[in-house]
Specification:
The complex is a heterodimer of chains A (260) and B (383).
Chain A (H helix, E strand, L loop, with lengths): L31 H15 L6 E5 L7 H4 L3 E4 L5 H11 L4 E7 H7 L1 H10 L3 E7 L34 H8 L3 E6 L3 H13 L4 E6 L3 H7 L5 H11 E3 L16 E7 L1
Parallel strand pairs in A: 1-2, 1-3, 3-4, 4-6, 5-6, 7-8
Antiparallel strand pairs in A: 5-8
Chain B lengths: L8 E6 H12 L3 E4 L6 H13 L3 E4 L3 H13 L4 E5 L1 H6 L1 H9 L4 E9 L5 E5 L4 H6 L8 E3 L4 H18 L2 E7 H4 L2 E6 L43 E3 L13 H16 L2 H4 L2 E4 L6 E5 L1 H16 L4 E6 L1 E3 L3 H8 L4 E6 L5 H9 L4 E6 L8 H12 L1
Parallel strand pairs in B: 2-3, 2-4, 4-5, 5-8, 7-8, 12-13, 12-15, 15-16
Antiparallel strand pairs in B: 1-9, 5-6, 7-14, 11-13
The chains are: A alpha/beta (260), B alpha/beta (383).
Chain lengths: 260, 383
């Protein structure tokens, strides 16, 4: 089963992964491995029956998460993970349905589905992995790219206002909304457990390094540099109105649990 | 599941309502849709009927979401459908591809109207027939049925569910505004007289199960989500485990099977209605509402001594190539009336392959042919 470690002892999360699919396709320094790790630990903590937990994802780097997790898992079309998850949940309410996908997938092409799922308060958990950029297609500008940040399609600096995802989800009616970065793994795990056990639409935005594109184009060349930036600039402000939790280019990142 | 409210008997009912009742009879317990004329009455009836039979209705934010939800519901283990018209059908194309690739049973009803674009929302058309065949990207085979009456909308919706469960793919019911909005007698049989097919379940344990390993009929048994099989399902090209496999060989193996599972079972799928084709010098080939009008023209031509037969396509896709080829050996011409500027006529022409003439009788939409137009075309080719 275990191929992921060198000492043969195995990793405690191996039983929850499709180890035969390793190595994964993600770049060195990418935060998606951390997110999967935190998700699995948060899931174990929730004590949900694993045969009834389903992971659905859309397209892109984050969309590949479903494929590595040893649960019923669905890798669907670009932007449509949430409506697919909605159908799955409504057809079989015994299931705990989790959407793991990227900011481009969930808030650009899938933005309409996101706000309507929150409005309906359908009982699914969404982990929105935000690396400020389209990774898999080569680093183009996205709906969360901060103002003035450079991307392969905004080489002079992004001119469009980004989404504040927690504010968007909260305004649309979500029952649980939080934001963490991959530098706060314990808080993130705890938050995932809370979201999984919350009845209703829950969303956690997870700020995640993409050194290959976002970092390289914006003077944070390694995953480590990006993680240091998250560590040094994250400010926990749980309970605040997420309207005050916007993200500015290289500015502070307000994290916390905003709606519960 | 106990039926709280199953209706049986004779009804004066619209085609759209009959379609909804066919779905209920077939065991459909999930509908996701978005309102669009002239398909909205299907959603309206489902919103009322599904709660009565312990099913779920949801009005989604658009057609993309509707079909995504239907696919999700199908993997949740429930028979699911959506209904739409041309513009919404266009929006569903990407997820039809996902349904094909992931072998997800479901039914999509397209109540066609005049097009392109917004076209004639309240008036009839048959302009989506090629979109039904080729609208999603890539190579695939599809099943599309074409009813010619409210009764057949009831019957063929059941058949569509049965075929979708048997062959594991989205099955299309291609009707049109004229049939969907037509009121006629519809007979709904007692529940125990209806043949209902359910997806084949895995016969092996979770550890041994390969979600895309086909049986002899090229269709793999299907484990639903939540049953402990821990399936991974992707729209990417995948192997028998369902894992992505980015090679030309994996693509060849998968796509060939997805096409072959339909093409090799054509005899089971294709349903035609034939009338006096033996000895005919002209055969009118038509489908849906156009076939009803064609019958009038055919009777008139016969009363004038012309030997004309009639072939009605109940299954439009897969196309009845062999039968058209056989008929093309004996007739002077095919006459193909359809409410578009030539779609199915191209298929007839392909199968006739120069052995006989194919005459399209087009109607641009907004109404149906006058029988006289079809009669004129028959006369022209008869001599």
């Amino acid at each position: 089963m275990n191929k992921a470690t060198t000492n043969g002892a195995g990793h405690p999360l191996d039983p929850y992964l499709r180890a035969e699919r390793m190595p994964h396709i993600w770049c060195s320094g990418c935060g998606l491995g951390l997110v999967v790790n935190c998700f699995l630990r948060g899931l174990i903590q929730s004590r949900l029956a694993l045969d009834k937990v389903v992971v659905v994802s859309g397209i892109g780097c984050a969309g590949r998460a479903a494929g590595y997790i040893n649960l019923d898992s669905f890798h669907t079309t670009h932007g449509r993970a949430i409506p697919f998850a909605t159908g799955l949940k409504l057809s079989n309410p015994e299931l705990k349905v989790v959407v793991i996908s990227g900011d481009g997938d969930l808030t650009a092409i899938g933005g309409n589905h996101l706000i309507h799922a929150a409005r309906r308060n359908v009982d699914i958990t969404v982990l929105c992995i935000n690396n400020f950029i389209y990774g898999m297609t080569g680093g183009q500008v996205g709906p969360t790219t901060p103002l003035t940040a450079r991307t392969t399609t905004s080489v002079g600096g992004n001119i469009d206002q980004p989404f504040n995802i927690p504010y968007l989800a909260a305004a649309s009616g979500a029952a649980y909304v939080a934001r963490w970065t991959t530098a706060q793994v314990i808080r993130l795990q705890k938050s995932i457990t809370e979201a999984l056990l919350k009845n209703g639409f829950s969303l956690i935005e997870i700020i995640t390094p993409c050194p290959t594109y976002y970092g390289r184009m914006n003077k944070q060349r390694t995953g480590l540099e990006q993680m240091k930036y998250y560590r040094d600039n994250s400010i926990v402000k749980s309970g605040i109105d997420p309207k005050h939790a916007g993200i500015e280019f290289n500015g502070p990142i307000i994290v916390g649990r905003f709606v519960d | 599941m106990t039926e709280r409210k199953y209706i049986a008997g004779e009804f004066f009912m619209s085609g759209d309502d009959a379609c909804a009742e066919g779905a209920i009879s077939a065991g459909c317990r999930f509908f996701a849709g978005y309102p669009i004329t002239p398909a909205s009455e299907i959603a309206e009836r489902m919103s009322e009927r599904l709660p009565e039979v312990a099913g779920t209705y949801i009005q989604m934010e658009d057609e993309l979401a509707s079909l995504a939800a239907v696919l999700g519901a199908s993997w949740g283990g429930v028979k699911a459908m959506t209904a739409t018209s041309g513009p919404g059908f266009s929006l569903m194309m990407e997820n039809i591809g996902l349904g094909i690739m992931t072998e997800t049973p479901c039914v999509i009803v397209d109540v066609q109207r005049g097009s392109p674009s917004t076209g004639l929302p309240t008036l009839t058309g048959q302009g989506d027939m090629m979109q039904a065949r080729w609208g999603s990207h890539g190579s695939y085979s599809i099943i599309a049925l074409s009813p010619d009456s409210p009764q057949e909308l009831y019957d063929l919706t059941i058949r569509a569910f049965n075929l979708s469960e048997k062959y594991r793919l989205p099955v299309l019911v291609m009707t049109e505004a004229a049939t969907g909005h037509m009121y006629e007698k519809v007979v709904i049989p007692p529940m125990n007289e209806i043949e209902v097919v359910h997806r084949r379940k895995p016969a092996v344990s979770a550890g041994e199960y390969l979600p895309f390993k086909p049986d002899a009929d090229l269709v793999p048994p299907m484990a639903n989500a939540g049953e402990g099989y821990r399936v991974h399902i992707t729209g990417l090209t995948h192997d028998e485990r369902g894992y992505p496999a980015m090679t030309a060989e994996a693509q060849d193996r998968l796509v060939r099977r997805l096409v072959d599972k339909i093409e090799r079972n054509r005899d089971d799928i294709i349903d035609l209605e034939e009338d006096r084709i033996d000895g005919a010098e002209v055969v009118v080939c038509s489908y849906g509402i156009s076939a009803r009008v064609s019958r009038i023209a055919v009777e008139q031509a016969r009363s004038e001594g012309i030997r004309v037969g009639m072939l009605r396509l109940i299954t439009v896709w897969p196309f009845p190539e062999d039968r058209i080829r056989d008929i093309s050996e004996q007739v002077r011409a095919f006459v193909v009336p359809e409410i578009n500027y030539g779609q199915i006529s191209l298929e007839v022409e392909r199968c006739a392959c120069g052995r006989t003439k194919t005459v399209l009788v087009p109607h641009m939409g907004g109404g149906v042919h006058s029988p006289g137009t079809i009669l004129e075309a028959i006369k022209q080719v008869a001599r």
